[in-house]
Amino acid sequence: MPNHTNTESMKRTGLILLLMCFALLGKAVNLRYSNERPLIFGIDMNYQPLEYVDDAGIPHGLDVEFTQELMRRLQLPFTYAPNTWENIADDIIKGRVDLGMMVYSSYRKDITNYSRPVFRLYYQIVHRDTDKPPYGLRDVSGKEIAMMMSRPMKDTLEKVGAKPFLIKDLTRALTELSKGKYDAVICFRYQAKYLIEKEGLDNLVATDLALMPREYCYVSHDRHLIDRINNELEKMDEDGVVEDVYGDIKTTFSGLYIPMWVWLLITAIIIVALICLIVQQRIGRKHILFEMQRAQQSEELKDIFLNNLSHSLRTPLNAIIGFSDLLMSMSKNDMPEEEYQHLLELINNNGLQLLHLINELLSLSDIEGNRQLFERKVTDIDDEMTAYATETRMQINNGVELEVVEPIGGLRAMIDPKLLRIVTMHLLENARQHTTEGKITLSYYRKEGGLYVEVKDTGNGLPAKLKDNIFALLSDKNTYVQEDTPGLGLSICKAILEKGKGKIGARDNEEDGHGTIFWYWAPVEILN
Fold first, then answer.
1. Is 96 exposed, middle or buried (0-12, 13-18, 19+ CB in 10 A)?
2. Distance between CA atoms of residues 489 and 427, nearest Å
3. How far is CA 69 from CA 24, 66, 72, in A?
4. pTM of the prediction?
5. Taking the C-alpha atoms of 201, 202, 208 and 214 in order, what is their torsion angle to the nearest 10 degrees?
6. How far apart are CA 131 and CA 205, in angstroms?
7. What is the pLDDT of residues 449-497, one digit of tens each?
8. 175: Cβ–Cβ under 8 A, 6 or more apart, which residues?
9. How many Å apart are CA 228 and CA 243, to the nearest integer?
10. Which of 74, 115, 284, 434 could form a disulfide with 459 if both were Cys (CB 3.0 to 4.6 A apart)?
11. Are 388 and 458 in contact (CB under 8 A)?
């Protein structure tokens, strides 16, 4: 009997050990990495102090140290693939290496997977100490500014009239700057501090730029790997590992005096966010759910809606928080007055943008609740359309023509001119944003006892996946116009016309071979 008991006990123990082995192996098997096929971590050969390779070919740097701890926690075997930055970036995007670290970019977010940020990076402009302060973006017009490749930064410099000069070796660029080759170099704060001290470039000075901080993340083509990394990064942050490794280069705010206006700003942001949530709930129960059901609750459209709504709220909020973080990281005396005022202007502009989104949400809610007044009166349609075209011509791209096709003999109608302007200008704005060459045509005439208006462009055309839902709340203005202009314009147009028993639609511009035709019809009284 004792032998039988010992045998059963050994079986149970063996089964438990076997299950534990499978559980431990399952983590690596699920991610397809093993000792025979280790995870390949791509690093830049010369990106000090984050990652670099010494003369013996051995990887060093903070990223290497941090990733070693991350892989140990995930129990994933891995190896390094050092290369030049342009090659590593291409290898990561195309999946030739499994993992790397880079700055988050909205241009790449749809072609790869980013982790939650490990820490944030702040920009500085480095110049010679003989240059007269202040030195910021408003002082670089006409000057040659060296920088590593960054599309957002390159666009920003070109907008302020600077001459961006793309470099591949930041150490060499700073050395050349000290000798007078460039007017300035733009890089991240930790890079400027490290390289100036390392190279002994005593004649260089670094000044903070009033720009939104960037997020430094892990990036991979493997979505499951990024999910696992996200879970572990949260634990590493709580355990203080991030601070232990990156503490000398990440920005901290301990011991700083935070002015009262900053607390008031944060309070206002929280209130605005709560208002947005309340408004969203108000219109959500009777409009969003209805539209989602009518679209048969398409998973793709749900993703579009959530992405757009979060983007609409997050974009101005991130800017406000990022710029206020920058203000909190230094005293007012450490920043030129012009840069300080510029930061306040940016915070104010993004606050106004957030207010614009809230107003459009409230406007849509008013229309849905039958509180929008339709004050019909005698309106000269010719004069109104001419005014809309004149206003739009002032903003269209060079090389784009805007033509107005009006009916012979003119047109007057009983219509609310305010609502006529809202709908027509939204359609013209869509055409303007998406037409970089060719022609925009605004035409209108009497049709079926009402007013028919058509805006035709030779632009990008309708996104295929949104053709049936372009006017629905699920596909708000973000998805068709541009990401940096949040709004619900097309949804508002649809709501206005439906309340007035009208119609609105869109189709491909087959006449010109590309582009879009937006149209609407309103059952109004035509007077001539």
1. middle
2. 9
3. 18, 5, 5
4. 0.45
5. 20
6. 9
7. 899 999 999 988 877 666 666 665 434 443 333 333 334 567 778 877 8
8. 199, 201
9. 20
10. 434
11. no
